[in-house]
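Re: fe (ii) ion structure - here you go.
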Amino acid sequence: MAEPIEIRGFRLWPGWLDRAAQEAMVQDLRGVVAAAPLVAPVTPGGRQMSVRMTAAGRLGWVTDRRGYRYAPRHPQGMDWPPIPASVLAVWRGVTGLARDPDCCLVNFYGEGARMGLHQDKDEGDFSFPVVSISLGDEALFRLGGVDRAEGTQSLWLRSGDVLEMGGPARLAWHGVDRIRPGTSTLLPQGGRINLTLRVVA
Ligand code: SIN
Ligand code: FE2
């Protein structure tokens, strides 16, 4: 696999997945969503999030009025489905780790959806990276430093790109300003899927 592009400790592999691999992964994700439907979560402060969310793996990340946390079951009570092999292959290929992730968070961005600047810090062990996979429409991703006061910069994430937040960038601030509708034909109804893979510990 080609060397990644390094941006402030983030590592980006443009086009890690070719079109056929993206299509196969979307098929696998249809199975995940059939077993554990996408929900429209609210923040602990009661704000409706614009992304829709589900998960696969031993634990899923959830948010509601009780807070942000990892939960052993979907909010509707079912078990989370297993992380598809196609997704695990990306984690193993990027990280080279023997330890598989506990959680594959599935975020769906329709037109107008965004994700405010945040740090991923609900996990118990920050020595493991977070690996993010982009599918479908392009997204304007904003990345900053570990210190919120550091400036941010933006880059477009495209279908098939893989981004790793590890080492010095593990606790870096990041978010998605917007997606660009109609920039991919991967999802017949449009939109963007982002997967984030995490060891929760
Ligand atoms: C996230 O930080 O949870 C999502 C990142 C993305 O959608 O690219
Ligand atoms: Fe995040």
